[in-house]
Amino acid sequence: MLNIVLFGPPGAGKGTQSERLIEKYGLTHLSTGDIFRANIKGETELGKLAKSYMDQGHLVPDSVTIDMLRAEVLKANSQAGYIFDGFPRTSAQATALDEFLTSIDTEISLMIALEVEENELKNRLLKRAEVSGRPDDADPAIIENRIAVYNKETAPVKSHYETQQKLISIDGIGTIDEITNRLFAAVDSRKS
Ligand code: AMP
After folding, report:
1. In this structure, are strands 4-7 and 28-31 parallel, antiparallel, or unpaired?
2. Which of these, 188, 10, 187, lies nearest to 86 by C-alpha position?
3. Could you confirm whether 14 is annotated as catalytic?
């Protein structure tokens, strides 16, 4: 199995690049942000809870997010593997993911971190708001919050995978195709 954590700050291009990776490697895409948004749309209890955090640019609590992710993996039951997009976002989530994958006889193959500097992220998110309809993209104060949460709680997750020698950092500036080619090269360098 090929299990990839696609990592990076909000606006780094994780969603766009996930689509390319899925197509090439036949992986199952699990985006916790997308799953929360589907629950908000469906007006589920989980959606209502998640919305109260997401609207402020805060993280949904670990316990809720981890339980949801585990259920989604079991439901998808992929043979080829997964792209985890937007998860893990805290050290506790990273540890829980390792333990869970071990329990189903697999593991993370690699983490690819998309590196994009802050001003570029802010511009991309505001531009994305014009088409995404996401309230958390449209408000500069919420964007600031999301980037601050990323720097404080999520960026340390990189060292979790660095210690395991699974981290590959990629320059996330360039055309979509250029970045995709960097990602493919990173994956191919690790594929057994
Ligand atoms: P994203 O679509 O990845 O930008 O996520 C949008 C929002 O969903 C985030 O700002 C968080 O509020 C929430 N969210 C997504 N993934 C996670 C996660 N792994 N842990 C906690 N909150 C999350």
Report:
1. unpaired
2. 10
3. yes
Beta carbon of 18 within 6 Å of any ligand 1 atom: no
> How far from 80 is each of 22, 28, 29, 149, CA to CA, in Å?
10, 8, 11, 32
Can you tell me the distance from the alpha carbon of 25 to that of 2, in angstroms, rounded to the nearest whole number? 8
Averaged pLDDT, 34-39: 97
pLDDT of residue 191: 76
Question: Which of 20, 51, 128, 158 is flagged as catalytic?
Answer: 128
Q: Are 79 and 1 in contact (CB under 8 A)?
A: yes
Q: What is the reported pTM? A: 0.95
Task: Map out the domains of the chain with their CATH numbers.
Answer: 2-27+78-191 (3.40.50.300)
13 CB less than 6 Å from ligand 1?
Answer: no
Residue recorded with tokens 């629950």: 39
Q: Is 122 a catalytic residue?
A: no
Where does the pLDDT of residue 192 fall: very low under 50, low under 70, confident under 90, or very high at 90 and above?
low
| CB 59 near ligand 1, within 6 Å | yes
Query: 94: CA distance to ligand 1 center in Å?
Result: 14
- Give tens-digit pLDDT for 46-64: 999 999 999 999 999 999 9
Question: Dihedrals φ, ψ of 169, to 5°?
Answer: -95, 140
What number of H helices and E strands is found in the chain?
Answer: 10, 5
Q: Catalytic annotation on 37?
A: no
